């Protein structure tokens, strides 16, 4: 089989790509741990922190896509206990971030800001433990694959589409968040209330992830 024939064989149909792009857009734009982390960091520390958090989130998604391409995600999907452990680990991490965010909201007006490297790493961990992304990769992504052809190239192509859409959506959140921060977050009271809302939302997401079955997320 020639190079063009092989590429045509593994290339998803336009309809498949369109449906996958739509599903990705809905996932990326809907409120969740990743979106909340990007928005909260942008509101509290500005555009640079927002982009650092975004790159961390996208890096975590690339790891999930690589896992799907190498078959690790399939093994994870076959293990109910592994998915359950991932769900509770993600829930615990979200609650931890919520508690930390609440405590920082009550600090004096000039608290030490988190470094960009730490923000990036927290973004990676947040997305690695995000049950929504896990279920998308291990349960939803395979529906767009053709088992009659090599899986890895198909996952790689869909992964590029996924990351491109996620970057576009998260960039929108960062730019909108930085604009809101400039206009409405100048007072210490507004910063404190925003931090408390973000913290409460983290904790609520963590509790929801822990109490909702993985198949229902």
Shape type: globular
Question: Ends: how far apart?
Answer: 41 Å
Number of contiguous helices: 10
What is the total tally of β strands? 0
Q: Report the sheet-strand fraction.
A: under 5%
Secondary-structure-derived class: mainly alpha
Count of the domains? 1
SSE series: HHHHHHHHHH
Q: Low-confidence spans: pLDDT under 50, at least 5 residues? A: 108-112
Mean pLDDT: 77
Largest sheet: none
Radius of gyration: 19 Å
Specify the helix fraction band.
over 70%
Description:
By secondary structure, this protein is mainly alpha-helical. It has one domain. 80% of the residues lie in helices and 0% in strands. It starts with a helix and ends in a 6-residue tail after the last helix.
In brief:
This protein has 217 residues and is mostly helical. It has helices at residues 3-10, 14-29, 33-45, 47-70, 72-77, 80-105, 116-128, 131-140, 151-184, 188-211.
List the helices and strands and how they pair.
Elements: H1 3-10, H2 14-29, H3 33-45, H4 47-70, H5 72-77, H6 80-105, H7 116-128, H8 131-140, H9 151-184, H10 188-211
Helix pairs in contact: 2-9, 3-4, 3-7, 3-9, 3-10, 4-7, 4-8, 4-9, 6-10
List keywords for this structure.
217 residues, mainly alpha, 10 helices, 0% strand, globular
